[in-house]
Design goal:
With about 260 residues, the chain is mainly α. The protein has eleven helices and no strands.
Length: about 260
């Protein structure tokens, strides 16, 4: 069945969101200086700390996804409320700087995940399913970019393909065992693959907080941009999944690549 005019508009909108300006460019505009200035100010030792904070945040996000996302009542997504909450948590980073990342990032990530789950539900997803909940976690990788040299995985569909086996294996594990075996290879593999992409954006956020700003106000603004970025990724991703349920993955990908 051919897409309706409204569905074609949705597809074009989703592509616009998924291929929009990256977070680094948005933050550079906000800060008024290239983000490289902040990246250069990050001590080498902080890269390890960022990786550790990212993994901790994703482990918490996975636990939240499994334990609570399916229990929320059915209502439209409240993006603004979550953005405000993330901004408040970001104010901590603005006041205390990089040392606060280990405390602030898990909180911000949990807020983002709940917002992503509401967006998923608004597009017809069933949050009672393990796969749907892990799709919410996967959004943190779709908006995270890739390291240098991984350009083949930079596109939306390429990123999904790279993560698909890890997501399906983790979903199968959770369906059988829940989180009783948190160190299971399927869960570790998913966390590692998502972390490799999510940490790129976390590093950009940390770099922006290393640029002299206006204290708490600057941290709040950066975190608001942070969650807005992933809300856009979630909206685009779950629109695509809704259209795929109706018309098939191959057809939607073909039309996606043709659309402008």
């Amino acid at each position: 069945m051919a897409l309706s005019a409204a569905e074609r508009d949705d597809l074009i909108y989703a592509k616009k969101l998924l291929e929009s300006q990256g977070l680094a460019a948005k933050i550079s505009t906000m800060v008024g200086a290239p983000l490289e200035l902040g990246l250069n100010k990050l001590p080498q030792s902080w890269h390890g700390a960022i990786q550790k904070a990212t993994r901790k945040s994703l482990e918490k996000a996975l636990a939240v996804a499994v334990a609570t996302l399916g229990e929320k009542e059915n209502r439209p997504p409240t993006n603004q409320r979550h953005a405000v909450a993330a901004g408040i948590s970001g104010a901590v980073g603005g006041v205390f700087g990089l040392p606060a990342l280990a405390v602030e990032l898990p909180l911000s990530t949990t807020i983002m995940l709940r917002s992503i789950a509401e967006i998923a539900r608004s597009q017809g997803e069933d949050l009672r399913l393990a796969d749907t909940r892990l799709q919410c976690v996967q959004v943190l990788a779709l908006g995270g970019g890739v390291e240098a040299g991984d350009s083949n995985e930079a596109g939306y569909f390429a990123a999904r393909a790279a993560l698909s086996k890890a997501v399906s294996d983790a979903a199968a594990h959770l369906a059988r065992h829940g989180l009783s075996q948190q160190g299971a290879p399927a869960l570790v593999r998913l966390i590692s693959q998502v972390a490799a992409r999510f940490s790129v954006v976390v590093t950009e956020k940390a770099a922006a907080q290393a640029v002299p700003l206006v204290g708490a106000l600057g941290g709040a603004a950066i975190n608001t941009a942070f969650i807005r970025h992933f809300q856009s990724m979630a909206t685009g991703h779950f629109i695509i999944r809704r259209l795929e349920r109706l018309h098939g993955q191959d057809e939607i990908r073909r039309l996606y690549e043709k659309s402008s």
